[in-house]
Specification:
The chain contains twelve helices and 14 strands. With 367 residues, it is of the alpha/beta class. It binds glycylglycylglycine.
């Protein structure tokens, strides 16, 4: 990286639970980059989720959305706090991330599931099934059943209640996320598997049709296959290395990526990038966050795994700033630290050295 003059504007939103602890470790990496790679960050911090509810009475303020638009990228921690479980839906901490995705139009959530050599034994599957696993799940994030109307809980004439959510996808929403998946596949092993439930869902039928059309029109060089979501869950556990890029809707992507995380050893290992459309000014809104939530059961104990947060920063460097060498350095540092035997509790195995959040973060920076 050559000497860079204009500071890179990052909005940093640590959130709830373990969010602030793991963000501190990503901060160490940012400080290292400033010191050693001639880059300057202009960091703005703000509250989201339960932390924002406690201070401002809302999970996210409009001002935070505006700050996100004004930034080069958003680095997000995690949201969720059991204290706010019994409030109305619009007062849940999780609304913060859903609203950020919606307002910034962040429609493509890239969730890589990669097995580090040192962690093959930490996987829930046998080492020979997961060694070298490297898949990319592309999850649609602003449509589908999370946002479709009608939705709500209504009381029926007999006094019983009915909860409603609706799965809705338009051709445009499917086309743009399919393009992201095909583009990514071209830079990888050139294979896309599109996942839906077209045997029982109209939206799944349209999903399959539209992905097939986009493929036929623009990406004939990429190998395309289709799979039902239930079969995909089974295949991910049976033989995950058959996949390269998976593209799917909001709900299936959420479920399948959590499943895939266990193939890598822990939910604490998986980073993500959520990308929007390139704007007229050439900027592309983007948010980077671990796929895991706030883990309130271990918050404040200094034991959370900071790797997903640090790898999310590596994705930010790669996708928003085109700092490929620096992203590679971070990923290699994580691999080396794991190879040296350091483990947080979630990836601990016999004979390894158990460490807390800060020691893991420091070791990655030192490496
Ligand atoms: N870092 C991810 C996070 O905080 N997740 C909490 C959550 O509930 N997210 C909903 C979603 O990813 O759709």
């Amino acid at each position: 990286m050559s000497e860079q003059k204009t500071p890179i504007k990052l909005l940093v939103l640590p959130g709830d639970g373990v969010g602030p602890e793991i963000m501190q470790e990503a901060n160490r990496v940012l400080a290292w980059l400033e010191k050693n790679r001639g880059v300057t960050f202009d960091l703005t911090y703000d509250l989201v989720g339960g932390a924002s509810l406690a201070e401002y009475g809302v999970p996210i303020r409009d001002e935070v959305i505006e700050k996100a638009w004004a930034s080069d990228a958003v680095l997000f921690g995690s949201v969720g706090d059991p204290k706010w479980t019994h409030v109305g839906f619009d007062k849940r901490p999780e609304i913060a991330i859903l609203k950020l995705r919606q307002e910034l139009g962040l429609f493509a959530n890239l969730r890589p599931a990669k097995v580090f050599d040192a962690l093959v034994d930490a996987s829930t599957l046998r080492p020979e099934v997961v060694r070298g696993l490297d898949i990319m799940i592309v999850r649609e994030t602003v449509g589908g059943i999370y946002f479709g109307e009608p939705r709500g809980i209504e009381t029926l004439a007999d006094g019983s209640r009915r909860g409603i959510n609706t799965e809705v996808y338009t051709t445009g929403e499917i086309e743009r996320v399919a393009r992201v998946a095909f583009d990514l596949a071209r830079k990888r092993s050139n294979r896309v598997c599109s996942v839906e439930k077209c045997n029982v869902m109209e939206s799944g039928l349209l999903w399959k049709e539209v992905v097939t059309d986009v493929h036929g029109r623009e990406f004939k060089d990429v190998e395309l296959s289709h799979m039902l979501a239930d079969n995909c869950a089974m295949q991910l556990v049976r033989n995950p290395r058959q996949f390269d890029v998976l593209v799917t809707g909001n709900l299936f992507g959420d479920l399948l990526s959590d499943l895939a995380s266990m193939l890598t050893g822990s939910l604490g290992m998986l980073p993500s990038a959520t990308l929007g459309a390139v704007q007229d000014n050439g900027k592309r809104p983007a948010l980077y966050e671990p796929i895991h939530g706030s883990a309130p059961d271990i918050a404040g104990q200094g034991v959370a795994n900071p790797i997903a947060q640090i790898l999310s920063l590596a994705m930010l460097l790669r996708y928003s700033l085109d700092m490929q060498a620096e992203a590679d350095l971070i990923e290699q540092a994580v691999a080396n630290v794991l190879a040296s035997g350091l483990r947080t509790a979630d990836i601990m195995s016999e004979g390894m050295a158990r460490v807390g959040t800060a020691v893991m973060g420091e070791a990655i920076v030192r490496e």
